[in-house]
Amino acid sequence: MKTLIKYIILLVVVILTSCEAELDLPPVDEFEPESLFQSEEGIEAVLFSAYNFDRINTGSVKNEILINEVTTDMSFVRIGAVEREMTPFLDFNWDSSDPILQNAFWTPRYRAIRDANTVIENIENSDVSEDNTTLFRAEARYLRAAQYANLYKYFGLVPLRTTTNLDEQPQALPLPSEDDFYNFIETELRESAGNLPHPSEQTQRGRATKGHAYAILTKFFMNTRQWEKVIEVTDLLMELNYYELNPDYRGTFFVENEGNREIIVTYSYRNEQGHGLQFQNGAFPPGFLNTPSVPEFEWTTSMANWPTQFSLRDDFVESFNPEDDRKQAVIEQYQNRAGNMVDLRTTPDNSRSLKFWDNDQVGNFSGADFPLIRYADILLSRAEALNEINGPTQEAVDLVNKVRTRSIDDPYSMGDAGSTEAFRNIILEERGWEFYSEGKRREDLIRHNKFIEFARERGLNASEHQIFFPYPQEEINANPALE
User: Fold this and answer.
1) Spatial separation of the C-alpha atoms in residues 409 and 402, rounded to whole Å
2) Is 187 helix (H, G, I), strand (E, B) or coil?
3) What's the pLDDT score for residue 29?
4) Which of 197, 246, 366, 479 has its CA 20 to 30 A from that of 252?
5) d(CA 73, CA 318)
6) Mind listing the pLDDT tens digit for each residue in 46-60?
7) Cβ–Cβ contacts within 10 Å for residue 346, how many?
8) Which of 239, 242, 266 minimizes the C-alpha distance to 255?
9) What are residue 330's phi and psi, to 5 degrees?
10) Minimum mean pLDDT among 3-17, 202-216, 380-394: which range?
C-alpha cells in the first residue's frame, strides 16, 4: 500500500502539470501519505489520476487510429519508424510480444482500473462530503467499466479486477465467464449513470456525465451484438434531449468548435509540448503547405511534418460520392512549399485525411481533440440494431438519413434499403464515410463479419482468431491464467 501511495503522489505531481485545464487540481502539498485517502482533495486527485490514464496519451492516438484502420480496407502507412511499427498489423502477423499491445492498449487501462478501485475502496472512510461521495463513486465506477469495455474491443475477455487487494484477487487472476464480464460492465454503467450529472450540468469538459455512461454502454452492446439493449440505451441517451448533430460535418472537428453537442466522449489535447494530438504530422504529405479542400488550414514552419506517411486506400477514397461533403477532408492534391500543385493519386493508396488540424500547432503538438463517441455514432448504432432485429424500418432509414443528409442531399428510400443484408451493407458504408480517421473501422468490420474476409481479399493469410489481439506477453508471464 505504501508503494501505491508513493506512486499516486508522484502521479499527482505529473497531473498537476499535464491534465486538462478543465480538471483543476489542488496544490500537491495537500497529499501527504497519511492524508492522501482522507481529504476530499486527495480522493479527487486519485480519481483524476484514473481520468488521466483513461485519456489516450499524446503519443498513442496515432496507434488508436492506425491499428484500427490499417488492419482494414481503409488506411495504409509507408516510410519510417511508424511503418515498421505498423507492418505486423498491415500484414496480419502480429504476436503477443508487440509492445503496442502492452503499452498502448493494456497498461494504461489497468492503471485507470487500479485508481478507480482505490477511490471506491477508500472513499467511505474519507472526509468527502456525502454528495461528492456519491458523485466520485459513480465516476470511478464509470471509469472502471469504460476501461473494461475498451479492453474487450481489443482482447475479448480480460481479468476482471475489482479490488487492489491481492489477497482477494491475486496476480494470477482467472478470466471471468462471458456472462459475468458482460453483466459487470452493464451493471456498473447503468448504476453509475444514475448518479452522474446531466451533460448540461457538467462544467468540466471530459468529466463523466450520464451521456458518457450511456454512450460507452451503447458501443459495448454493439460490439457484443446485444441489439435489444442497444435500442433501450440509445433511447435513454436521446431522452437526455441534449446531444445533436453539428450542422457542418468538418466543423465538428475544428478547434474553435470543441465542446459542440455532437461530441459525447472525447479526449482533449492542447498545443503544448507533450500534450497535443500528433496524428496529423504523419498525414501531412511531403513539403505540404495547403490544400484546396481544407482552405482553413495552412502549414507553417513552426509545425512538424513527419517522414512517415499515413494514407487512405484508393478503393475507400473512390467509394465516396463526389458530392459528399465528408470527402472534403480527404486530400488528393496539395500545394507544396515550392509553390507546385502535387497530385497524390499518382501513387497508389496515397490520399490523406486532414480531419484534425490546428493553425496554432506547435512542433508535434496540435490542440485538436480526438472524439471517441459522437452523436452520429449513436444514431447509426440505433439504426443498425433496429435493422438486425426487424430488418429495414422507416425509423432506421430516417436515422441513417439524418446523418447522411448533413453531408449530401441524397437520402435513402425504403426501396434503397431493401433487405436486412442490403441495409446492413449500406450502414457499414455510411459508417466508413462518417468515421474515417476516428479508429472505428476494425470493430465495425468485426461486427459485420467482414474483418477477416476483407483481409483475405487483400491477399493476407488472416485467421478467425485474429478478430482479437493476443494478451501481451508480459501479462501472460505474470498471470499464467492467460495462457
Assistant:
1) 11
2) helix
3) 43
4) 197
5) 12
6) 999 999 999 998 888
7) 8
8) 266
9) -90, 120
10) 3-17
